[in-house]
Specification:
Blueprint lengths: L12 E6 L2 E6 L10 E7 L2 E2 L12 E5 L1 H15 L4 E2 L2
Antiparallel strand pairs: 1-2, 1-6, 2-3, 3-4, 3-5
Length: 88
């Protein structure tokens, strides 16, 4: 099952590769001071919007609870059909 608690943060970040996309999850970004998380999506080293994961016109999403990050992990799998590979 894809869940954030399956991963340990390397300092303040986890990066998972889903096919052509990388998902960065940080615990010290928007909402970090409240115990929340921020995510960003990358493709070919560029931050990108990804419908269903980030909002239109935005490449990051902050103030996320752990369960919201879990939903994003499932969404990334659903979009890419690729199992996540930890790259950082």
């Amino acid at each position: 099952m894809l869940r954030l608690d399956n991963y340990t943060f390397n300092k303040n970040q986890i990066v998972l590769k889903f096919g052509d996309y990388d998902l960065s999850i940080i615990n010290d970004g928007y909402g970090g001071d409240k115990g929340m998380y921020e995510i960003g999506v990358f493709k070919d080293r560029d931050m990108v919007e990804l419908p269903g994961v980030t909002a239109e016109g935005d490449t990051v999403r902050g103030f996320l609870s752990e369960s919201e990050v879990d939903e994003i992990l499932l969404k990334m799998y659903s979009i890419t059909k690729a199992d996540p590979e930890r790259i950082r």
